[in-house]
Specification:
The chain contains 27 helices and no strands. By secondary structure, it is mainly α. It has a domain at 385-451: Alpha Horseshoe (Serine Threonine Protein Phosphatase 5, Tetratricopeptide repeat). Helix 7 runs antiparallel to helix 8 (113-124). The mean pLDDT is 95.
Length: 452
C-alpha cells in the first residue's frame, strides 16, 4: 500500500503507512527503503541516503535499496557512486530493466559507447520494443555517426508508440544532422501535434526557418502555436529571441515583457531583456534586468560578469570589481570573471601579481580564448616581460587576427623590446582598421616617435 501511495505521489498518506511499519519493525529493510523513497520524493537527499544504507546493512542483497541509492546519487551528481549502486542492483537482479538503462545512460554520458550499447542490447533482447532502450540505442548510434542505424531505432519507437513525441523529436534531430531540414521539420511538427507545449521543439522548427533565411516564417510559426498553447510564456520568450536575431528590438522587448507578465520567474527572459537594453544604450534598465535575474537565481554566473562589464564601462571600477568577485565567490574557477577581474586590476592600478594569478587561472580554464591570452600578455607587458607578452599576443591574433586592440598591444610590446620595425608595422595595422579602441591615441603617438 505504501508503495502505491508513493507511486501516486500521496506522500502524507504514504508516510503514515511507513511509520507504522518502522514502529513495529525498526530495522525492516523494505520499510527503510520505503522511507528513503519518501525522503527522496521530498528532496531530503542525505536522509534518503542514510535510509538506503541502513536497509543495505540489514539486507545487503535487496536490489531495490541499491537501485534507489544509485538514483539518489545520480540526482545529486555523484555519478561514480550511482554507477556502483546500479552494478550492485544488477548483481542481485540481472533483469532489473530500469537499473540497466540508467547504467547504459551513465556509460553513454561517459563516452563509453560500446559498453553503453552492450547494456542496452541486454534490455532489447528481452524487451525489443522498450521505448527508452530504443531511444538510448539511437542516441549511441548518433554519437557513433551511424545515422541510418540511429533512425531505425527511433522509427521503432514511432511505430510502437505513435503518441510518444520523443521518437519524432529524435528522428528529426537525426534528419537535421543529415542536412534534411524539411524532413526534420515535419518530424518536429508531428511531435508538436501530440504535445503543443513542447516549446524546445518549436524552437527547433524556428531555427530551421532562421537557417533558411526565413525569420518571418519562424515568427509566423511561433505565433500560430499560441492558438494551441495559449498564454504560454515560453512561446513569447521564443518569439522575443527570434526578433532579437532579426534585430527587431522593439518587438523583441514587447514579447519578452509579455513572457514576464505571464510568468515572472524566468531568469533567461530577464537576461535577454537586459541584452536588448544594453544594445539600446538603456543601461539603467539593463542593470535592473540583470539584478532581477540574480534575485531569482543568486548562483547564476553570467549576470555578475555582464554587470561587471557594464559598471567598468561606466567608470565605476569598484562596482565592477565587486561583481567579478561575487562570481568568483560562487565559482572560484570561472574563467570569464577571472579574466575580467585580472584585466580590471591591471588597468586600474591594482596588484599586478594578483592580476597575473587571476589571468593564469583564466588561461588554464579557457586556453584557446583570444581575449584571455591578450589579458595575460598585457599583464606580462606591464611587468616588463616583453618576450612572454609578444608570444601571447601572437597566439591571441591567430584566433582574432584583425582585432585592433590586440594589434596595439603587440605593437607596444615590440616597441618596448626595441624592435622598432615590427612595432611600426604592427601599430600601423592596429590603426588601419579605423575602429576606435582603448590606446588608439597612444598608438598614434608612438608611431610619430618611430617616424622621427
Amino acid at each position: 500500500m505504501a508503495e502505491l501511495l508513493l507511486e501516486t505521489n500521496k506522500l502524507n498518506e504514504a508516510e503514515n503507512y511507513i511509520n507504522n511499519i518502522l514502529n513495529e519493525h525498526p530495522k525492516d529493510a523494505i520499510g527503510l527503503t520505503l522511507r528513503g523513497r519518501l525522503r527522496l520524493a521530498n528532496r531530503k537527499f542525505q536522509n534518503a541516503i542514510e535510509d538506503f544504507r541502513l536497509s543495505i546493512k540489514e539486507e545487503p542483497n535487496f536490489p531495490y535499496s541499491h537501485y534507489y541509492l544509485g538514483l539518489t546519487y545520480e540526482i545529486i551528481g555523484n555519478f561514480q557512486s550511482a554507477k556502483s549502486e546500479f552494478d550492485e542492483t544488477l548483481k542481485f537482479a540481472p533483469n532489473f530493466v530500469e537499473a540497466r538503462l540508467l547504467l547504459a545512460t551513465y556509460y553513454l554520458q561517459s563516452g563509453d559507447y560500446n559498453q553503453s550499447l552492450k547494456e542496452v542490447e541486454k534490455v532489447l533482447s528481452v524487451q525489443a520494443n522498450n521505448p527508452v532502450a530504443n531511444l538510448l540505442a539511437g542516441d549511441i548510434k548518433l554519437q557513433q555517426r551511424q545515422v541510418d542505424e540511429a533512425s531505425a531505432y527511433f522509427k521503432t519507437v514511432i511505430n510502437n508508440f505513435p503518441q510518444d513525441p520523443r521518437g519524432y523529436i529524435k528522428l528529426g534531430i537525426t534528419l537535421q544532422i543529415q542536412k534534411k531540414n524539411k524532413e526534420a521539420a515535419e518530424q518536429f511538427e508531428k511531435a508538436l501535434s501530440i504535445n503543443p507545449n513542447l516549446v524546445d521543439v518549436l524552437g527547433m522548427v524556428a531555427a530551421i526557418y532562421i537557417s533558411d533565411k526565413k525569420p518571418e516564417k519562424a515568427i509566423e510559426r511561433a505565433m500560430a502555436q499560441l492558438n494551441k498553447s495559449a498564454e504560454n510564456p515560453l512561446i513569447y520568450h521564443l518569439i522575443g529571441r527570434i526578433y532579437i536575431t532579426m534585430k527587431d528590438f522593439e518587438n523583441a522587448e514587447k514579447s519578452l515583457k509579455k513572457a514576464i507578465e505571464l510568468k515572472n520567474d524566468l531568469v533567461a527572459v530577464y537576461m535577454d531583456l537586459g541584452g536588448i537594453y544594453t544594445r539600446k544604450g538603456a543601461i539603467e534598465d539593463a542593470i535592473k534586468q540583470y539584478n532581477e535575474a540574480i534575485k531569482l537565481n543568486p548562483k547564476l554566473l553570467p549576470p555578475y560578469v555582464v554587470l561587471g562589464v557594464i559598471y567598468e564601462q561606466k567608470g565605476k571600477i569598484d562596482e565592477a570589481i565587486k561583481y567579478y568577485k561575487k562570481a568568483l565567490e560562487i565559482k572560484p574557477e570561472f574563467g570569464p570573471a577571472a579574466n575580467n577581474l585580472a584585466w580590471t586590476y591591471s588597468e586600474h592600478e591594482g596588484n599586478l601579481d594578483e592580476a597575473l594569478s587571476l589571468a593564469e587561472t583564466a588561461k588554464k580554464l579557457l586556453p584557446t580564448d583570444p581575449s584571455v591570452s591578450d589579458t595575460l600578455g598585457w599583464i606580462y607587458y606591464k611587468k616588463k616581460a616583453y618576450l612572454k607578452a609578444i608570444s601571447l599576443f601572437k597566439e591571441s591574433l591567430e584566433k582574432s587576427p584583425d582585432n585592433p586592440a590586440i594589434l596595439y598591444h603587440l605593437g607596444m610590446a615590440y616597441y618596448k623590446k626595441g624592435d622598432n620595425k615590427m612595432a611600426e608595422e604592427t601599430l600601423k595595422s592596429s590603426l588601419r582598421t579605423n575602429k576606435k579602441f582603448p590606446g588608439d591615441e597612444e598608438a598614434k603617438k608612438v608611431l610619430q616617435e618611430l617616424r622621427k
